Amino acid sequence: MAEIKESFIIRGIEFNNRVLTASGTFGYGDEVKTLTDVNRLGGIITKSLSLKPRAGNPPVRIVETAGGMLNSIGLANIGVDKFIGEKLPYLRTLSTRIIVNVAASSVEEYCSVVQQIDEQGGISGFEINVSCPNVKEGGLNFGTDPKRVAEITREVRKRTQRPLLLKLTPNVTHISEFARAAESEGADAVSVINTLVGMAIDIKNKRPKLSTVTGGLSGPAIKPIALAKVYETSKAIKIPVIGIGGIQQWEDAIEFLLAGATAIQVGTMNFIDPAGGEMIVDGIKQFCVKEGLKDVGDLVGTLKVDTSTSVIDSWR
Ligand code: DHB
User: Fold this and answer.
1) Which pLDDT value is given to residue 215?
2) How far is the CA of 286 from the centre of ligand 1 (A)?
3) Which residues participate in catalysis according to the annotation?
4) Using the 8-state DSSP alphabet, how is residue 206 labeled?
5) pLDDT means per 10 residues in the chain (316 residues)?
6) pTM to 2 decimals?
């Protein structure tokens, strides 16, 4: 196959290709090592880490819906100490990039997690989750207030020189306002989008299916929303947008690149096939060969739009 440039750079760090796995869908990389070659991915984004271990929400916390999945995990995770002791040694052996997703219920907690992991090394950057829909403290309270997003970005930025991504929620009117807040305080990229607040009901017992009533909707059902948010965001900021939301096959990934995403994350698809990311890497490359492109980056933001009829372009 013709030589195609697949890599891209964020804050001086080179990622081998533009396909990463989304937080919460790929564990800490070791759980899936017999199912796929993780080193063929551009990067792995870990399950959210908080300072102390968290048990998460009570069951039921995952429900299938039409074209998607609702979850309310509640940031269940092993905490920083166990991550450093039990996960980091394996992650250090990988050649793919490791981005640690961080969730917290205070600015101080975000800073403490980032600082402790940054000092250890062996990882390539951080994705700050200001958008978990399933916790009462932090989560959407932070992610739906642009001043809080700015403050968290500013404080975390002081703790690391590694790439800093802010993962934004779509549960707002204009996501670009939040992307601008992150950019202005030193974020290197934004991940767009996290899950949408949703609900499912069991009509037999007349109860919500999830213990927390609402949860985060992901999967193909949200792809059109994600594409619109990526397009809006990429027009509003100069830093890269990492597109995420319902990507299941390479064609979906191409749509996100055209809409303005510099790279993409594969999430819910990993529960169907953890090797889905690898197939998307191959598919993107083959598409570029067919299109006669030398660099996958030549696709980014090349959507042909008639701005005189585009409604979203009038929002700015
Ligand atoms: C959880 C966190 C998220 O950011 C999300 O989108 C969905 C679920 C969680 O751990 O509950």
Assistant:
1) 97
2) 33
3) 132
4) T
5) 90 98 95 94 98 98 98 97 98 98 96 98 97 86 95 98 98 97 98 98 98 98 98 98 98 98 98 97 98 98 96 89
6) 0.97
Tokens of 3: 């030589």
Q: What CA–CA distance (Å, rounded) separates 229 from 243?
A: 9
Residue 38 CA, ligand 1 centroid: distance in Å: 22
What is the full DSSP assignment across 28-66? TSGGGTTTS-GGGSSEEEPPPB-SS-B--PPSP-EEEET
Amino acid letter, residue 37 = D
Residues whose beta carbon lies within 6 Å of some atom of ligand 1: 24, 48, 71-75, 129, 131-134, 194-195, 216
Which DSSP helix (H) or strand (E) runs through 151?
A: helix 146-157
- Burial of residue 288, with CB atoms counted within 10 A of its CB: 0-12 exposed, 13-18 middle, 19 or more buried: buried
Q: How many residues are recorded in the chain?
A: 316
Phi, psi for 199 (deg, rounded to 5): -150, 145
Whether 165 contacts 203, CB under 8 Å: no
Domain boundaries of the chain, sorted by first residue: 8-56+75-196+218-315
Four-way CATH pick for 8-56+75-196+218-315: 3.50.50.60, 2.170.270.10, 3.40.1190.20, 3.20.20.70: 3.20.20.70
CB 103 within 8 A of CB 80: no
Q: In one letter, which amino acid is 252?
A: D
* Distance from residue 301's CA to the centre of ligand 1 (Å): 28
Substitution site in 75, 110, 214 for ligand 1 pocket (most atoms within 8 Å of beta carbon): 75
Nearest to 168 by CA among 151, 190, 188, 184: 190
Checking DSSP bridges between strand 125-129 and strand 207-208, what pairing results, if any? Answer: unpaired
- Ligand 1 centroid distance, CA of 35 (Å): 24
**What burial letters (b/e) apply to 180-199, b meaning 16+ CB within 10 Å?**
bbbbebebbbbbbbbbbebe
Cβ distance 199 to 213 under 8 Å? yes
Give, for ligand 1, the residue of 134, 135, 136, 265 to mutate: max count of ligand atoms closer than 8 Å to Cβ. 134
